[in-house]
Write a structure and sequence with these properties.
Blueprint: H1 3-14, E1 37-38, H2 48-59, E2 69-72, H3 80-85, E3 92-95, H4 104-108, E4 114-116, E5 123-125, H5 135-139, E6 163-165, E7 170-172, H6 185-189, H7 191-198, E8 210-211, H8 217-227
Antiparallel strand pairs: 1-8, 2-3, 4-5, 6-7
Length: 238
């Protein structure tokens, strides 16, 4: 057994351990005001989103593991506007946290490190409280693609939209950069988004490579539909 699980087990025992009283099912909490909504057909795999995610979280004193991952995906049909502007680029897809309405990760945490920001509704991990037990990671119903296809070629041994950071010995997930006035750094910094805003790349109104629309039931259902892979625990979930 590695050091992190041993420390986590000791910490759990100190607070009542595996018998601690927790809800036995998903809990109703404030919905997230937004959600990262990717459009793979516009992605050029530049990794700006991953880099900026790491930078802004590190500047905040948090884990700098990227909370959004980009994967090579030969099946992605690249938008013609991207092909025209960036020949030979494309065929990627993005995998963010979906800020689930009834987040499975929230109610399994024995120390309430999984929290909901009262202003934005973002589900985030309080790293000062995290005891690295891994329950949130196990509970997440959205697995990630194989890291052998990760565009950045980095291996975190990641299995869900929640990532273990061995350097800080904490788990981390997308928190919508809830403390930033400009909102999620990935959405703000994506070069395709910038060019769309500038009118250089012309697409239908509202389309972005990475958008942050309101997390309505309709939006979340659409997002879930194309972020749910074969065999995913998310299949059939409300």
């Amino acid at each position: 057994m590695s050091a992190a699980p041993i420390v986590a087990f000791i910490a759990l025992e100190a607070i009542g351990g595996l018998g601690a009283s927790k809800p036995n099912g998903p809990i109703q909490v404030k919905g997230a005001e937004g959600v990262i909504y990717p459009d793979p057909t516009l992605c050029i795999g530049c990794l700006t989103c991953e880099v900026r995610c790491s930078q802004v979280h590190k500047a905040q004193g948090l884990s700098d593991v990227p909370r959004i991952r980009i994967f090579n995906d030969p099946a992605t049909k690249v938008d013609p506007v991207v092909q025209a502007a960036y020949p030979d680029r494309g065929k990627f897809h993005q995998e963010p946290c979906l800020q689930c309405p009834t987040a499975e990760c929230l109610y399994v945490c024995p120390v309430d490190a999984l929290q909901v920001d009262p202003k934005t509704g973002a589900r985030f991990i309080n790293e000062d409280k995290c005891v690295t037990c891994g329950r949130c990671n196990e509970a997440c119903i959205f697995p990630v693609s194989s890291e052998t296809t990760a565009t950045n070629q980095l291996v975190f041994n990641q299995h869900s939209r929640i990532t273990y950071d061995p350097d800080k010995d904490v788990f981390a997930k997308c928190d919508l950069c809830y403390w930033r006035e400009g909102g999620p750094a990935c959405v703000e910094s994506c070069p395709i988004n910038v060019r769309i805003r500038q009118g250089i790349i012309k697409v239908e109104s509202g389309r972005m490579c990475l958008a942050a629309p309101a997390s309505t039931p309709e939006t979340w259902d659409k997002l879930r539909a194309f972020q749910t892979f074969e065999g995913s625990p998310a299949q059939g979930k409300a």
